[in-house]
Amino acid sequence: MKYRPTWRTARKLSQFLFLVLFLVLFRKTDYAGSDTLPYAVNIFFRWDPLVAATVMLSARKFILLLFPSLFIILLTIVFGRVFCGWICPVGTLLDWLDKGIRPKPRPSIRFRKIKYLLLVLLLVSSLFGLQLIGFLDPFSLLVRGGTFAVDPIFNLIASGFFNTVYTHAPALAEHVTEPVYTVLKNGILPFRQSFYFLSGLSLLILAAIGAMEKLGKRFWCRNLCPLGAMLALFSRWSFFRRIPSSSCKNCPQCAPNCRMNAFDPDSGKLHHEECNMCMDCVDDCLNQSPRFTFTRQRGGPETDLSRRAFVASALAGIALPLAVKVNAASRVPRPLLLRPPGVKNETDFLSRCVRCGECMKVCIENALQPCFFESGYEGMFSPRLVPRLGYCEFNCTLCGQVCPTGAIPNLSLPEKQKAVIGIAVFDINRCLPYANGVPCMVCEEHCPTSPKAIRFRNKTVMNREGNQVPVKQPYIKEGLCIGCGICENKCPLPGASAVRVITASGGGDTESGYGGE
Amino acid sequence: MDRRDFLRQVAKWTAGALLAAPVFRITPELLAAEQPVAKVAIGTGTDTAALVKRVLAPFGGMKAFVKPGDRVVVKPNIGWDRRPEQAADTNPDVVKAVVELVLLAGAKEVLVFDNTCNEERRCYHQSGIKPALDGMKKVRCSYIDKRKFVPVDISKGKSIHKWLFYRDALEADCYINVPVAKHHSLAGLTIGLKNIMGVIGGHRGRIHHNIGQNLADLNTVIRPAVTIVDATRILLRNGPQGGRLQDVKVLNTVLASPDIVAADAVATTLFGLKPADIPATRAAAEMGLGEMNLNRIKKIRV
């Protein structure tokens, strides 16, 4: 049979290439020998118009970083939801999943309006200062699931296999597996095994999105994705449309097979804003071919959002920020909630953070971890420093570089080295030179500021044997400590460290009077 | 064989494989094989490569230590994420010069590594050592592979009797110690003896509780063929990682000696200190690892 180029081939190629781009950027979100990352690894977030809209609303600022989103808006206004059909890596993965999962044909269309309700809720609550996009943005969900669960599990399996062979198999096997492992480590596997809180939850969310496919093709995209909803609204103006705009009567081809179920089941009319331009109906038509072309034709069925539903959703968008405001959690000091370097104000930070997980992915010490309820339920998945797991590397500015919204400011190295994350305090009941008269000073050795923020005094104390011994006792020089946490991380005591970093400002809402700046 | 029997067999074999960790012992004879008179060559100059060559000349050059076909470990200090001019890590020019001489002496392979304190990729790059060695044939500047730490009985140890050592360092045909000389608030100074910290694994913080004796004990396991001390820039304060250029003094000096204690002793004088001020030097000399009495060390100016 003669090869005939089809729309489907082109679309699949585009989906594949954008997925590869996504995965390459994911892998490149890491230190590679240079202080600055050479690629815009966060581009998927920066061209996301929903991220741009919610962040600019809640932060009440124009954010230049997010201007690539204009490109996606423009693309949608001209061509409709091609982003959903040809670009979005979540959509691509769901399409691939369909081969194994066998979705229910001709699924119900009554859930379709949920995505609009969610969109309205997100936008209105952003307007009132509550940023919830991280819970629903498809890239946030995907990058977090990848960062917190899929990638570490992938590495665990690989290293588990290769290490077992290395340790237990005869040397002969090692000569085969180790070169393979080296190659994998140099390109495909992450540099080291990382660990994250909420790994299970993040994986569960991805799995749920996948499992929903069983209820119908592109269930997430059709019914829930708020970015899809936003692009659907923009696509109502688009010029590039299908002709004819309805399916043919009694033909079993395009309407039942439409992955977006975009044809009205009764009238056969196409909901243009539901169509993601996959063009399968063009390729598969049995007789006279439908076309996608530039047209001035408008109209089609109404959008699924009723006025009543819009009002209800908007009211919820107002109520949620108010509920957060009166949550007592925001009044309690949070001394252990350490934010990434350069973050000054908790409220500003949460209004900008889209929980994309990029900072936690790039953190070379695996120190940035997702919050669960440490910063209130509205702060779930936002990053915090957990020094006992990893410390903030003094010469590293990567988290600020990858943050797509500037929630973590992109500081120059001298600025970052002065940015106060918190302050270290000693627990002299446990610290060896205080408690046992044993010399130690590991914290002082690692303290990166110059001059050092950890100093020592020469003291004579009684040790465990009851002898008076001279020791050097460490203390913190305030004003020099930036709270990087390397002291807490390297403290040789088992279990809890004898030096801990706490927030310099008290960590509460700064307006609340608790240790504001 | 039923299932129960099979599982029992698997368990036994696994246990056997796990327990049969290799043991490296340094015999007393090897420890006793010391230099009759300690010699330390010391030289100054701005051409680092030529300087390194010059300080090795009194001992017969690098070929006195490296035999053709040897697998050689060159162990610099790459502990910190600092730039060369901050003098917290061994000067990359010194490392490169040593590696080039080792290759010239006919080494089969040169391994350069350190168990770093800061993130390893940052240390290797920022110190300038990995960039300096990249592209050199037969040279591997690779990161520590945690699987390669093996428990070693330290039979001569007074304070520690067992520790994890890096296999590549233990198995090397020739081990060349290339420390940087710098201030350290607990150890006094960190020079050759303390550089051993970079080839051990485990909970390294524990070493600090009796640092002088512990370092001496560790040094009974791996004995460098030669210690080449980088004193091109020395860190006077705020060590071991420094950061400020005002704490750095440029000396353009390199020392070399097959006797690690003598090398440390002479390097200590560059800081205006006496060898006995450094606990590790004292403990190592007491254990017979080398000479620290400056009167009995022949200083060769080159």
State the gist of this model.
With 517 residues, chain A is mainly alpha-helical. Chain A has helices at residues 7-28, 43-46, 49-59, 69-79, 82-87, 89-101, 114-127, 138-168, 171-187, 199-211, 219-224, 226-235, 254-257, 280-284, 307-325, 346-352, 358-362, 398-402, 413-416, 432-435, 442-446, 486-490; strands at 240-243, 291-294, 368-370, 383-385, 423-426, 454-462, 468-476, 499-502.
What does this structure look like?
- The complex is a heterodimer of chains A (517) and B (302).
- Chain A has a domain of 97 residues: Alpha-Beta Plaits (2-Layer Sandwich), CATH 3.30.70.20.
- Chain A is 43% helix and 8% strand.
- Chain A has 22 helices and 8 strands.
- Chain A has a two-stranded antiparallel ribbon. In chain A, strands 3-4 form a two-stranded antiparallel ribbon. A two-stranded antiparallel ribbon of chain A has the order 5-8.
- Chain A is elongated and about 100 Å long.
- By secondary structure, chain B is of the alpha/beta class.
- The longest helix of chain B has 17 residues.
- The relative contact order of chain B is 0.18.
- Chains A and B meet through α8 and α21 of A and α5 of B.
